[in-house]
Specification:
CATH superfamily of the largest domain: P-loop containing nucleotide triphosphate hydrolases
CATH class of the largest domain: Alpha Beta
Distance between the termini: 44 Å
Number of domains: 2
Structural class: alpha/beta
Oligomer: single chain
Strand content: 15-25%
CATH topology of the largest domain: Rossmann fold
Shape: globular
Radius of gyration: 20 Å
């Protein structure tokens, strides 16, 4: 329910600026702030008293706004870069959209219904990196380390507000197009926490547009690169995105910020009809019946849920994170300062 309302507000740009609706909701934001403040203090107290602490460096990839900022591509990027430098990362995730609640290991054969859509993407794009999902990330991390004792760094895909999980490095992603919306906390605005939260993170990563939001916090630019489309019915068949240059097609996005996907297509001057769905939407064949025979292009996150009923002319566009080269070196320095490697 919350995910659907969030996607609706993002699509309709209700949180982009101060409006009558946001002002009416402002008293609820004050209540929300009080609740998150109390919760944060209680969880910090619990973590400080915990005896079974995670004794491995833990990296949190998160944001302070609702909606997609590229957390999952960045988590994948970190895992592969750390692996290339001789570390053995493991990734934990909430697994939004799944029907089960138990702690589960994600495998290449896992279903989005079982583990969520984003973990299915992660496990296909990382090298030698176990992926586990569960609601309580502390318990998920403990289970991962129990089964894979060689793992020596934990990456949490999302979790900046999951304060029951201890952390060594916090990375906050910011959407460079519209960093904080109208500046209000939920539900009057898109903020999960006040903007002052940025002062306590270790790194800020801005998507698409370079921006130094706090002169005291190292800030890096990230771009999501996608230039090759893949046929859903046969993943061995690929084409450059320009393959669709002179074709009309249906563009589908059921992600946190669908307009980012459509903006990417517009940069290639492609002609398409756009269809937005709520984040983590579980697609059915009827959802993609557009009463035409035009090709369909969707995000990789959406394609994961459409494999079983894909048509011959359905394609997906995977994206990968590209971050300034010095970013991963700074991460390595932080890890080595806290742990001996």
């Amino acid at each position: 329910m919350f995910i659907g309302v969030t996607s609706l507000f993002i699509r309709n740009k209700i949180w982009k600026k101060k409006t009558l609706t946001s002002l009416v909701l402002l008293p609820l934001s004050i209540i929300f702030f009080s609740l998150i403040f109390i919760r944060k203090k209680m969880l910090f107290w619990t973590v400080n008293r915990r005896k079974d602490r995670i004794k491995k460096p833990t990296i949190i990839v998160g944001n302070i706004t609702v909606g997609g900022t590229g957390k999952t591509p960045l988590a994948i990027y970190l895992a592969n870069e750390l692996t290339a430098r001789g570390l053995h990362p493991g990734i934990i995730s909430r697994g939004y959209g799944r029907e089960t609640q138990d702690i589960s290991e994600v495998t290449p054969n896992s279903s989005p219904v079982q583990v969520g859509d984003e973990p299915c993407i992660i496990v296909q794009q990382v090298r030698d990196c176990p992926v586990f999902v569960g609601k309580n990330k502390h318990h998920v991390a403990k289970m991962l380390l129990q089964r894979y004792p060689m793992v020596n760094v934990i990456i949490s895909d999302d979790g900046l507000q999951h304060y029951s999980l201890e952390r060594d490095i916090e990375i906050c992603l910011i959407d460079g197009d519209n960093p904080f919306g109208n500046g209000f906390l939920l539900p009057a605005g898109p903020l999960r926490e006040p903007k002052s939260r940025l002062k306590s993170v270790d790194f800020i990563v801005t998507k698409n547009i370079p921006s130094q939001l706090d002169e005291n916090i190292p800030t890096f630019e990230m771009q999501l690169i996608g230039a090759t489309i893949i046929k859903l019915k046969n993943r061995q068949i690929t084409e450059p995105l320009s393959y669709l240059k002179n074709k009309r097609f249906n563009a589908v996005a059921g992600i946190g910020n669908p307009h980012h996907f459509f903006q990417l297509l517009e940069k290639y001057n492609l002609k398409f009809q756009s269809f937005s769905f709520s984040d983590h939407h579980m697609f059915t064949p009827d959802d993609l019946d557009f009463n035409n025979s035009d090709p369909v292009l969707m995000t990789e996150k959406d394609a994961i849920k459409c494999n079983g009923f894909a048509h011959e002319n359905w394609w997906m566009l995977p994206v990968k994170a590209k971050v300034e080269d010095t970013f991963i070196e700074k991460i390595m320095e932080k890890i080595q300062d806290k742990y001996e490697y």
